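Why predict the complex rather than its parts? Because the way molecules touch one another can change local conformation, and only a joint prediction can capture that. The input here totals 1019 residues.
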Amino acid sequence: MDVSRRGFLKISGAVLATSGIGISLKPVSAHAQPLKIKYTKETTTVCPYCSVGCSIIVSTREGKVINTEGDPDSPINKGSLCSKGGSIYQMSVNENRLGKPLYRAPNATEWKEVELEWALEKIAENIKKSRDASFKSKNDKGETVNRTEGIASVGSAAMDLEECYTYQKFLRGLGLVYIEHQARI
Amino acid sequence: MTNHWIDFKNADVILIMGSNPASNHPVSFKWVQEAMDKRGAKVICVDPRFTQSAAKAHVYAPMRSGTDIAILGGMIKYIIDNNLYFAEYVKNYTNASYLVNPALKMPGDNNGVYSGLEGSKYNKDTWAYQTGGDGVIKKDPSLQDPNCVLQLLKKHYSRYTIDIVSRISGTPKDKLEEIYKIYASTGKPDKAGVELYAMGWTQHTVGTQMIRTMCIIQLLLGNMGIAGGGVAAMRGESNVQGSTDHGLLFHIWPGYIGAPTASLKTLKEFNEKRIPTTKEKNSLNWLKNFPKYSASFLRSMYGTNATLEEAYAMMPKLDDGANYSWLVLFDQMYKGKFTGFFAWGMNPACSGANANKVRQALGKLDWMVNVNLFDNETGSFWRGPGMDPTKIKTEVFLLPCASSIEKEGSLANSGRLMQWRYKAVNPPGVALPDGDIMSELFFKVRGLYEKQGGPHKEALTKLTWPYGKKTLDGHYHYDPHSVAKEINGFFLADKKVENPTKKGDFKEFKKGDPVPTFAWLQDDGSTSSGCWVYCGSYADKGNMAARRGTKDASGIGLFSEWAWTWPVNRRIIYNGASVDLNGKPWDPKRPVITWNGEKWVGDVPDGVGDPGSGRPPFIMKPDGVASLFGPGLVDGPFPEHYEPLECPVEKNLMSPQKHNPAIRRFDKPGVGSDLDVYSGVTGCDPRFPFICSTYRVSEHWQTGVLTRWCPWLVEMQPGMFVEMSVELAKERGIKNGEKVIVKSPRGEVEATAIVTPRFKPFNIDGNIIHEVGIPWHYGWITQARPKKKYGKLDKKPQVFTYGDSANLLTPTIGDANTMIPESKAFMVNVVKRG
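Output of the joint prediction:
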């Protein structure tokens, strides 16, 4: 029998509903609850956690994540997910996600919410100040080194490939040599 | 990973050592199970603890943390003594026949070290090959010369008897014999064995050499390049393969181009230094193409805004011999060397070894930018345990960013598979994708330099950044497709290029055309490519990473139309070694590549010429053969057992040299700081009598920076625990479930005692030695804080966790080659909480 994934879900829903775990077997119970992914838009993603690269289907409706589940098309995970991959719904739908930049002034005891534009401008000024103060065109041997010694960076394997590439471009353009990330630990 | 996840199913023997995939790469175990079910594969697990992987294995062998080289060295001896190696493979595809300088002294005859040790560095003069007048390496194809690599290998590991290995590792002799016998059975042409490792091997002072030992075994058994073989580096993050490919480390530019040092004054000098040379006439020596990749990378940075020489000059240079890696970075930060710091998508206050030092170091900064999905122990370090915010000057910016389902882009899994993912929803609030934040910062900083000037400003202002324009909402939108195309590479000018694989056949490219594969890249500045190994990922056929073809024409699970693998969509690297000298697959039932009379079919062939061409298949090695003898590493051409820096034994039973002689000790004058203290280095320290190892659980990821905020996961794994044997618990009067303190000279953490038979005391040369284990996912920020009030913007988790980071205990000491911290073997005490 050739069964599509959707078809399979329908069948298994029906089987579950009629399998009699204390449920009445009247015809009405064959109408399983509408699938929660009804009228949703599906996009695929790849799990952000370990490095197996499991594919996941994200179902959204009106800009909200409704459901996440393993992608049966992936030859790697064939629909399976572990506990972490199975929880990425909560990575997105989570009241503790940061939605605004937080700022902590020197010696302050509390966070302050700030505008993104203000934060980015202030960071840019800090970068310039630190770079200008610590830029070294020659090392002690008199060799040309053109590097910024007063700024360091760690991160990040949690970014996309394109972002990793862009980030190293930005950092090396600034002259950083202290560039490290998760791969070293 | 040389092969890929699905390929586990092709193995006859699977060795799980230095990892625990059943817990930490759970879905990959589907393929281990498939090998067991369908092929009748045998699974061996060697681990200090009876892990979930051990529970599924046919054979479990316990071992003391840090003794892997002893155990595997014993396996090498077993394979050679019993003549179980794959002779034809070894003779033709490795450097077994090469003759080495007779002046080389090996640890067995030289007090535990190789000849040439000067302080903590080796002078490698005696590690070289003998050459004839023509510069060609002298060889003995009969493999009998006492100075040939195979004979040296045999001599070196003759010391690794089962008896001494058992005394060092605590692994029972019969278990050693059993695993040696099973694994060595894969030396037959039609058998395949794979080794799965992860941080259990990298996080040691001899980590690189542990992996090397396994590589030697895989070469002896002919397991490299074949289906079901290889060495599987199972990475700990979804894109840590990719972030490394793209050069987010001090020592490499994208594509593993060694970053330039100050003595290499010009691009020409740089290229000359990096191009490997060989006199072996049949060797392809692929990396002779290096200048094409360095030039194309420089073009990707500066386009035509600078000449190649100017671009090279603008790039930052390292001091020769200097190290700028993680442990050094935080040491410098602790000493006040930096004013600014980015912790971008990271939580070093929990992930860095000796985390107390890291947390103190963050207070020495003027400013820090932390980009993350959730508040974390790094961004909020100033309000952490023991901190007085009023005395901490660091200005902190905690920027929210989009999660992986709130933006578009790609990532590379352990099998080098580059997969595209799509945006499902918008990020919360004003959170932006990381790339958008980078674009914002780039244009703002560039604007400041254009307006105000500054030292060497062209290095920044001349960077190309065609990744999207300012949108109506006032922000730069970062277009990952344009970046992916830049990474792939394109022509900067119209050019007619000879087909690199077909002499006399020319192809015309127009300016802007994508470069089809890295073989077409040029050294004259006419091509740009951000990361040459990804060339071909977004070329004329479009975005290969987005492919979702589910056909498997190979029959061995290559799934070559599902996404794209670097390099050139090759799923199993070194596959040129899967066929004999005449091009016939070693195992006709499991071929990776097959010659159909005209061309190779199956996987994208690696390194092989036409059958019978005589070209040795390991084309990334200058001489074309794989290295049983590996003089490239800093700490010896053959791996030698050394004890972890902190260890429970007085002496290294193998030699008078207790530790890896090439490590960088942070307790030496002028190197580290007051916080870099060790225990049990010269003799055993009774204050810290137990070995401790860190590890993971399925339900959390890394420092828990994401997962500790997800209630489902926290409910399953709520907090810090320490696993210990029934015997140790009895000795210390600790009951299962009691609260205990785990202490090292660097810090302490509270944990729940799990008293379990999963750990057993080791008998190490007649002494009873205990080992305990702790997960490293926790941190104070998601802990319940009954005494301390929450500030109005402090986030309060829906479900609290318990305990702080295991890295409060780990030492500032790294592997001699990589400087990855030794988090898998250090000394602690465990006491009941008062």
